[in-house]
Amino acid sequence: MIEIERNVYLKGLNTFGLDVFASHYVRIRKQDDLPELLESDAFGEYKQQVLGLGSNILFINDYFEGLIIHMSLKGINIVENGSERVIVEVAAGENWSDFVDKMVESDLGGIENLSLIPGTVGAAPLQNIGAYGVELKDTFVSLKAFDLASGKIVSLGHSECEFGYRTSIFKTSRAKRFIILSVRLKLTKQHRLKTDYADIKRMLAEEGIEKPVIKDISRIVKQIRQQKLPDPATIGNAGSFFKNPVIHPLVFEGLRREHNNIVSYPDENGFFKVSAGWLIEQAGWKGKRIGNAGMHDKQALVLVNFGGATGSELYQHAMNVQYSVKQKFGILLEPEVNIIS
User: Fold this and answer.
1) What is the number of other CB atoms lying within 10 angstroms of the CB of residue 333?
2) What's the pTM value of the predicted model, to 2 decimals?
């Protein structure tokens, strides 16, 4: 039987380290808990917010008047084991970074570039998480989800999830309809490593590694992330706060004429992805602190809580950055972090 708690402190469930309370909270440990939750008075009366590890959210208010659904489903199972690949099913509540480590240790490849990304497996399809030339969609097969509209468990394939750059139907057309229960990924036994990212190339060269294996890539990716991104255990943050904007080639050419050092690269559709961190730095916000909120001094894309900031202060700082970049470059930065009001 599920237990719905009242006035629960969420500081340990958001990596910004905010002093936030939720009026109602329930922890889901098994799939059978969800039909019961659907019938509860709290579910019908209050707005809901699904939560994993809270690594990609910003609560604007100190009190969330609603129901936090904390997904804690566990389990990792090989459902297909072939000569060249495996298909693994992972429960939504598993820690993503720990899962990647287990797969790398088992010499199963395809997600080693996604090492050390915080959050749960259930949150990975929501954002279509990505790093260093790899996105979740590259290995994604399908997922199981609880459909809040029908009360049934459904399976959604790759095309049905409509993955895009840091987005999916779970953030757009079907937001709030599904609760992800598990994810199936296709991992390789014969690996094709992604080493095109400049920092990966540089570190492989420095270490004299000519024929890297997936453990090398995972280790190097972790080192890069640790060098560039602050540890939420030390300073509150949710990683990259804004998406890298994708702009039309004609707009890009205009920007490049004015700023010939612009950091960018072409995407698969012929558009250009511009570094949001570069835009923020050029606008003068790298390392800039106002009160207890600011942008990180090593990575301008990371909004940080220096200690004691409120959600509204962090949000206002981010909006000031957004406005400044829009004024200077004519580009509207879009938050990657989910804003909870």
Assistant:
1) 25
2) 0.93
